[in-house]
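Final report, closing paragraph on structural work. Over the funding period we assembled a curated collection of sequence-structure pairs, and we close with a single example.
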Amino acid sequence: MINRLPEWFKQDIVSDQAKDTKRVICGLGINTVCQSAKCPNINSCFKNARPAFMVLGDTCTRSCAFCAVKKAQGERLINDPDEPFKIAQAVKQLKIRHALVTSVTRDDLADGGAAIFAMCLEAIRDINDNVTAEVLIPDFKGEISSLRALASARPAVIAHNLETVRRLYGKLRPQADYARSLEVLKNIKLLSASVITKTSMMLGLGEREEEVVESIKDIKDAGCDILTLGQYLAPSKENYPVKEFISPDKFRYYQDLAVGLGFKGVLSGPLVRSSYKAQELYNGVSEFQMTKISRNA
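Its predicted structure, as stored:
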């Protein structure tokens, strides 16, 4: 286990703006993955009023070794029917322009929670239809009907994280499947060619360089538009330990590789997470697509 952080990890001091964001979230009684997953960027994102809202409660039915989100212990999980409307209120109060919505994995639900995602998107648009929305979804067990329901709700971005290389899935994501996650990304594009797709991987879990390169190529073959790569940090002593700290130079190498392969948006660095600078990435890809359409018109 590696305990000491490298010198390139720096944390923002908690600002008054970050505290204001937290007050709104706590006041409405909603969850964020920023808090539940102990994200290292929480102060930076909260300062800029960019929380990643987490729906379907705060308890996950899966047991990924790297994740700090609370795990179900066989109890019956209950949903808050007002969750979508509370999130829409938070978007309004915080004056968010690009809303981020993710969830725990809920294998106990027939649709995996796709309907709740759709309700969140509708509730956000009811308050302000100029807000764009990005959803980070579980794999829904690969069910096409769930993906179709989500795509029909017209989010600007649909993200699904591959998380790690194929070899480490059994150890780190025993209830997930590498090929299924790639298939989810492919199917999203088949269901909605215009939606921007996105995925993220964590590095430093013991993967080899050639495995990372293979995964990046697999993601590109799945038609994914945006790729983010970041350093894994163990959220607690109970989680899987960090095996290696990846240097900024290595992150730049992977970024250059991904850009060369034709991804429309890439962000690669130690503190990068799947929702980090999401609005900037979306804007960049959106402008790229509009420019391409105008040139072909």
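The domain at 16-296 is CATH 3.20.20.70 (TIM Barrel). The first strand starts at residue 31 and ends at 32. We thank the funder for supporting this effort.
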